[in-house]
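Justification of resources, computational component.

The compute hours requested in this renewal are based largely on the per-chain cost of generating structure records like the one below. Each record pairs the submitted sequence with a full structure-token output. That output is archived, and it is also reused by downstream analysis tasks.
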Amino acid sequence: MKLKHILIAVGVLLALLIGAKLAGLIGGDKIEKVTVDKAGEKKVVETVTASGKIQPETEVKLSSEVSGEVTQLLVKEGDVVKKGQLLCKVRPDVLQSGYERAVASYNSQKASVTSSQQQLVQSQANFENAEATYKRNVELYNKKVISAAEFDAAKAAYLTAKATLAGAKANLTGAKFGLEQSGANVKEAGANLAKTTIYSPVDGVVSKLSIELGDRILGTSQMAGTEIMRISNLTTMEVNVEVNENDINRVNVGDSASIEIDAFADKKFKGVVTEIASSSTSVGAATNSVDQVTNFSVKVRLLADSYSAVKGGAKDLPSPFRPGLSATVDIESETFTGLAVPIQSVFTGDKDKSTDPMKNAGNDQNMDKQKSKLNDKKVKQYVYLFDSKATTVKKVEVTTGIQDDQFIIVKSGIKSGQEIVSGPYSAIQNKLKDGMKVEKTTKDKLFSADGKK
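The structure output for this chain reads:
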């Protein structure tokens, strides 16, 4: 009796298995579920993304030209200053004494000029007297009234007076040059003394104060010197970013940019590229190392109208941004409107057909690698067309153009309105084959099914 029940149970089970086999529920190949999008015209904006710091467009670093102790400090960090405003003073003792010595020397030289002038007047009078005596003796000598010895004495006195006059003129000229030199020394000493008083060269905000009252600072006369403070014009701000050498040729002065600042996470600001560095900044252990990263500095100006209505931030400053804030910039290098498909729909000819789940892990990372491959236009690129009647896919080679985060321009290979397989990414890259039968589904159903698994 028990054997009969067992045989009946086995028969029912075999019947169920045969029915499931015939219905396709078990055995056979599993039909891959895919999502489909139609190729259509879209506006694609290609961007170059880089990170950097906010800084003022104009920033002046102030250092003292003389060394000494800071005796007055009239500003603090964050103060708004005007051009010509007194900022600080350095102890002027040594320079003050030098200036006084220069003034004393100038006055002494001035007295020497006056003395030389008087000597010139005296020499001029002596010369005129000797000249008159000489002329009279010439007439008397010609008339044989005086002896030759008396004539020679008068002539020698005349020549001596003439030489003395010339010497007095030269001494006066030298004294005048000496006076000019002393005057120059006074100006130099006065200029050095004035360097102990530091004024603001521009209008702006004290963005960084590096000294305290009583500090001893080193002047810039012979070396770099101590930086006293920085004065910045915070009405015009910019982001200084580092762009990789692979992307720098796509960036041009005047390109528009979208800027995200970490301190203002819920806002985006507009900017424009104002400057691109001519030389690179290499980051690496060695200059000739193959592992070094070569970047170029690019400056992007923040447009004032994009943050004029922003509330919060630096309330005591002309702009809401403080120097040094971190920012991410998306530079719009090119814009094109044309036939486009989702970027995950396009794959290269060397795609990996492995079905190892560990190799397929991290789809986001794999997709980033695939995007970089799509930039190489020498590599053949393909999409899968979806045949709604046969529910199969067809591999088609395409030629692509620029791309953004979502779409890529297709120049040739497909037509507008054709249905393109757009997901899942892992299936497009690793599972689908030309002519393979698939099941069309929606993204919601696809991802909900994946979630249940």
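Residues 352-365 have pLDDT under 50 and may be disordered. Residues 91-196 form one domain.
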